[in-house]
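User: Batch of two.

Assistant: Item 1 of 2:
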Amino acid sequence: MSNDLPIPSNEELAMEWVDQHARSSVEGQHGDAALYSTACTLYHGFDLREGCINALRHYNATRCSPPWQEHRLEYKIKQAASTVPKHAPGGLARWMLRKKGLLVRYERRQQADGRAAVAAEPAATPVKRLAFDVDALEREVADVRTKIDYRWLMSRSPVPVESCSTVQFLEHLYQPGERVLIFTTFASQGQFIQWVGKCGVRLGMKPGLRGVKSELPAAAPEGVWFLSNPVSGEWKPNPRVTDNHGRPKMSRRSEEVVTRWPYLVLESDSAPEDLWLKFLVKLPLPIAAIYTSGGRSIHALVKLDASSKAWWDKYKSLIAPLFSKLGADPAALTAVRLTRLPGCRRGERLQKLLYLNPQPEMDGLPIINGGNKPCA
């Protein structure tokens, strides 16, 4: 019985994750990026502080070729500590314990230690991922001979992006009356809603608190995000996240409140920018928008118009293995996904809109070299 099993520490869970899921760091194959990504996952996803160095040493000994020097591990942890997290603190630890049937006991221990659990995104259905292969990506885009950069994309955008405001961006992509949830804190339940065709709303922070009409945020210290698929604006129980008594927590960002499944997000922290842009413009997919994260990533919003969550998941299962090999972050392939809101600032850096086409064709962007070719 799970009640008889000892609860692993976050450090032990992190080492188990390293053994089962971490991408190897190999010299000459973007090994530094793999080390950085792993440090971020360990530091934030397992909410490690002092124990992060031990988990990263384990990664270094088992998944790095050649192993990194100790000072590089310490430097990557410092970088991770100052990086905007992809995971809610301890989110991956809770995901692993949920699979082991130990989550409720774990959260009770967290509460006893004075560390309250935070709201997290619903756990994604695990996908079979292939390790990023930069050589495969280079081969894939070798026939794209034109230089693809921000200026090239902006000049071919059906909607002029320089004059497109944040509200106009959302109004172009969503149907009148739909509600798009906006975040200035990633691991939260959202702070604003854009009610398409009507107004922006600043939300109450708890169920039962009414929102007030408001402008959308223009900036936040860590940036601004939006939920890629529209929601009802209600609070509903999320059965995948429970409180200390095993009861579902109330959420307004879970799949239970999604009203339609129009979009999928592609992003990459691994692929070199020039190759990733060539990959995006070559893709035979209906790309509705491309925009920067205000950091190292470039996000693409793919229009699916899935009829259901099951339809969306089936589509993801088809593309995830190949796309992860070519640089896409498989962790971003979730139906309930936060993505950067273009036109807003992440500190001093702009989350810049590069391309906007509300009605994209299935063949992808109007490209070069005689047309698109499907990925091989």
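Item 2 of 2:
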Amino acid sequence: MRSAARSEPPPDPQVHRWIRRELASSPPRASSLIITVWGDAIAPHGGAVMLAGLIDLLTPFGINERLVRTSVFRLARERWLSARPIGRQSLYRLTRDGARRFEQAYRRIYAPPVERWDDTWEIVVANGSTAAQRKALRLELGWEGFGTLAPGVYARPSQAPSAVPRIAAALGLSGRIVVARASDDATLGATSLASAVPRAWDLAEVAADYRRFLVRFGSVIQRFRRTGGAAHGPGQSFVVRTLLIHAYRRVLLRDPQLPAALLPLDWPGAAAYALCRDFYRLTHRAAERHLVATLTNERGVLPPASSDFYRRFDGLD
């Protein structure tokens, strides 16, 4: 690991104890955590790092070298990553497909909750497709917040731009599905699309997960708020931020992110987003210093974070 040039504050004992308890009670799976770290921290810096630095970066999470090597090998086999030998070391880089999949998932993490909505719905009917194609379509649409109204019929409140053309093209289903925009019409005497929300999405389970998330991270975030982000070392800032985004990602990717008009009044998703936003803004400078001090690419230093990084959570300073 390369040492940082500036003097950094010592680790906070209370945060250290929280991290230790968290890792003991809910140890993250190596491969899942690596996906979080790559999407949250490495992708904005070009998406390519030397394996030795990644091993150092993940050591504080209790993930040893063998687990890191096994996990990145598996991700390469699944075509998320590609490997290239450089001397006696290995450089791992996001594949084009891996970058697309990361972008798909992670743009939802940093976007604010949907407030405005024009009351229209996007409907997908999977006629003329095989069972395997329908299964793949349901999975991809699910990541984009579509619920299942009936077998082969999927819906979500309209968003712009639509994700359906991209998904259909990737699955080879262009021209084999029916896509329409619709709105409720009370004069027709039928039940509304809005009334189908509890059937199409399990919001009660997602809400319970959000509340557990808020309890789990509330105390440590409050500690950072009281003492200020600059009072905490880069290593602790990076570890807590990674655990926070890792847990938030696991809840959020099952959240259809419906407009506020379709959600219960006590919906906790907005509070979870605000917690992540505030902590990210508070600690991103320190976490970035930790990354730069720990990781390298084939040129020996990470490039600066992309402009997209600074647009996360409605803008970072």
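Strands lie at 48-50, 81-86, 89-94, 120-125, 147-150, 153-157, 178-183.
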